[in-house]
Amino acid sequence: MRQQFRDTITDLARQDERIVLILGGISVYLFQEFQELFPDRFYNIGICENTMVSLAAGLSSQGLHPFVHTIAPFITERCYEQIKLDMCYNHFGGNIVSCGASFDYAWDGATHHCYTDLAILRLLPGIEVTQPGSKKELDLLIRSQYKNGRPTYFRIAVDEHGQDFPVEFGRGTIVQDIQNSKVTVMTAGPILGNVVEACKDLPVNIAYFHTIKPLDHGLVYHFRNTNILVAHDAFGLYEAICEISNLSVRYHGLPDKFCRYYGTREEIRHEIDLSPSGIRKAVLQEINRWTQGYSNHVL
Asked: Which of 112, 160, 50, 131 is nearest to 262 (CA)?
């Protein structure tokens, strides 16, 4: 997906001379062509993430469209104050593009794990927060939002969900809508691939979001009369859904502890029950919970 970011921004920069790219010591070789084509619009600041965001705000104040890019925890958790004050408070637009979502850097441990970014950023006034689950979604979301005058966060992951949907900023997608189903699984980003596999042959609805803020309340409301299970490998989506009143919502995702497992992203997902088998177990429990509740109510 990072290669799609390169292709998209390079194409846009050919058409829009106001685009500026700011890197934090990563993806430098990946953007070699961009640097050669637009040397006066390419800055590798190094490991100075806070400065990157402040620089982006300053460029935005002069009418430019900056993109800042580095590893997720460093550009979000470390730079939260700069995003809050330099960008959001001052109403300076700009694009924050991370890589290393959740456990993409599984082997590097807690310093490189990032699962709070969506949750903390969505709390800031005026910001937009997206979690593309495919190259197509990333491409179309960047093209539609990069010069909107708002701070916009794009969370890039290594994997994709393998589905193909129409893409519109702020609009979710109904992946599966089963008549009379009383359970709906809601998710965001690439983990949708595991959700689809987990729910194979199960009588449940599936709703998918690539935009966390603004959330598609209409899609959530469509399934308001079902029990909602949010299966997600980050915080943020569950909290956004819970802001809608009169819903029955449960969360299946990250435990309340640091991940001390090492290995691959898939191995960590298995350990915390976000593999297809782990998600399927949670969905079956939700189905059984509703069935037992309904039976007790009838009795």
From this structure: 112
Cis omega (within 30 of 0) on the bond before 151?
no
**Structure letter (DSSP) for residue 102:** B
Cα separations in angstroms, 260 against 77, 113, 265, 266, 268: 19, 10, 13, 14, 9
Which runs of consecutive H residues, i.e. helices, occur in 94-191? 117-121, 135-145
Q: Specify if 17 maps to a domain.
A: yes
The tens digit of pLDDT for each residue in 26-73 reads 899 999 999 999 999 999 999 999 999 999 999 999 999 999 999 999
Q: Are 113 and 105 in contact (CB under 8 A)?
A: yes
The strand pairing partners of 286, in sequence order, are: none
| Alpha carbon distance 90, 88 (integer Å) | 5
- Whether the CB-CB separation of 232 and 239 falls below 8 Å is answered with no
210: which 2 tokens?
A: 């690539």
Look up residue 45 and give its DSSP letter.
-
d(CA 113, CA 175): 28
Tokens of 149: 């005058």
Spatial separation of the C-alpha atoms in residues 31 and 23, rounded to whole Å: 9
Q: Per the structure block, which two tokens stand in for 257?
A: 């502890």
Same domain, 131 and 196: no
Say whether both 50 and 147 belong to one domain. yes
Bond into 203 cis (ω within 30)? no
Task: State how far the Cα of 190 lies from the Cα of 132, in Å rounded to an integer.
Answer: 7
pTM above 0.90, yes or no: yes
SS3 call for 280: helix
The number of residues making up the chain comes to: 299
Report yes or no: 97 and 130 within 8 Å, Cβ to Cβ.
no
Please check whether residues 113 and 238 belong to one and the same domain: no
